[in-house]
Amino acid sequence: MHTLSGPELDAVASTGLSNSVNMAFFGIATGSAVAFSIVLMTVPILEPKTYAAVVGLAWISGFTSLLFGIRAGIDYRKTKAKLRELKTGHAY
Questions:
Q1: pLDDT at residue 86, rounded to an integer
Q2: How many CB atoms lie within 10 A of CB 20?
Q3: What is the Cα gyration radius of the chain?
Q4: Is residue 84 within 8 Å of residue 92, measured between CB atoms?
Q5: How far is residue 72 from each of residues 9, 20, 23, 28, 87, measured CA to CA in Å?
């Protein structure tokens, strides 16, 4: 049986919350990047400004998807390391 203090539980909870927020935004950004890419491949956009706006939004969505995906991966590894530290009693 492991005993944990309040600050240890708070550290795990805050890291888990951050990870779920990053995963949610990763999903939203990935979905929008896919949607804008599908629009670019299937809809003939004749207006240059509209085409530029859709291309820009696709690139921005792709970039933010990458950003939130990386942040989610980092937070996931930090959470796993913190849990391993709490279970074993020492840091790796």
A1: 75
A2: 12
A3: 20
A4: yes
A5: 20, 8, 6, 13, 22
